Amino acid sequence: MSYIEIERLYKIYTGLVETVALEDFNESFEKGEIVAIAGPSGSGKSSLLSCIGGVLRPTSGIILVDSNNIAKLNDEELVNYRRDQVGLIYQDFNLINQFTIFENVSLPLLIAEKPSSFIKERVNELLISLEIARYEKTFPSYISGGEQQRVAIAVALANDPPLILADEPTGNLDLVSREKILDLLFNKSREYKKTLIIATHDPFILERVDRVIQLSKGKR
Ligand SMILES: Nc1ncnc2c1ncn2[C@@H]1O[C@H](COP(=O)(O)OP(=O)(O)OP(=O)(O)O)[C@@H](O)[C@H]1O
Ligand SMILES: [Mg+2]
């Protein structure tokens, strides 16, 4: 049995127009794999990541993560799943601008109700390992995009989730920052044996992952 098993997954957005974003999608992911989801704009990459991350509810189908069908979780169980199992990284960093770098990285640990001494130690360790310790008292808008993305990676790793989902993580970065961020993301994922799934068009990423899944109109 694989770490993640997806069977007959559909995501259909309803509204003025009905959009079938994922149509009978089937795939499995092994523990520790680094996989890219590629495909043109609108092919369903973000929808797939959101369904796996418990951010979006699928219309139908099965998503087994560690043998639990997350498509069937109630709201509270889904919150716990997202908090404990998943780290999310987005293109636009998604940091909270009113909070310092230290506070941003603390947030997932506060939500998980970790003791403050543990939080301090864990956040310091992450900031050092991602080479952003000098910014701990700084606010996100005062540091570069590449640095903000490093903070976002620290946030995603904070609770030590087994699964990291990254949606176009290098989309807003220049070439130099892009290489640095990818090195960090890949090294950390390998070092801590995370399963990393990245939605991307970036050829630089596609060359470096273990496997590429090509999506086309919501199908493989
Ligand atoms: N919240 C939404 N409501 C309605 N339709 C949506 C919504 N989100 C996405 N869609 C539609 O679902 C389809 C898949 O979108 P999705 O964002 O998953 O694609 P994507 O592969 O991530 O694209 P991109 O590369 O542009 O990020 C598209 O046709 C999109 O318009
Ligand atoms: Mg997308």
Can I get a quick summary?
This protein is an alpha/beta fold and 220 residues long.
Plain-language structure description:
- This protein has 220 residues and is α/β, with parallel strands linked by helices.
- The chain has one domain: Rossmann fold, CATH 3.40.50.
- The chain contains seven helices and nine strands; from the N terminus they run βββαββαβαααβαβαβ.
- The chain has helices at 45-52, 75-85, 101-111, 116-129, 145-157, 175-191, 203-206, and strands at residues 4-13, 19-29, 34-38, 60-65, 68-69, 86-90, 163-167, 195-199, 211-214.
- The strands form two sheets. The protein has a five-stranded parallel β-sheet, sandwiched between helices. A four-stranded antiparallel β-sheet has the order 2-1-4-5, with helices on one face.
- β4 (60-65) and β5 form a beta hairpin.
- α3 (101-111) crosses α4, α3 (101-111) runs parallel beside α5 and α5 (145-157) runs parallel beside α6 (175-191).
- The protein is globular.
- It starts with a strand and ends in a 6-residue tail after the last strand.
- The mean pLDDT is 94.
- The structure holds adenosine-5'-triphosphate (ATP) and magnesium ion.
Keywords:
24% strand, 220 residues, binds adenosine-5'-triphosphate, 4-stranded antiparallel beta sheet, binds magnesium ion, 9 strands, Rossmann fold, 5-stranded parallel beta sheet, alpha/beta
Radius of gyration: 17 Å
Ligands in the model, by name, code or SMILES, are: adenosine-5'-triphosphate, magnesium ion
CATH superfamily: P-loop containing nucleotide triphosphate hydrolases
Quote the CATH topology.
Rossmann fold
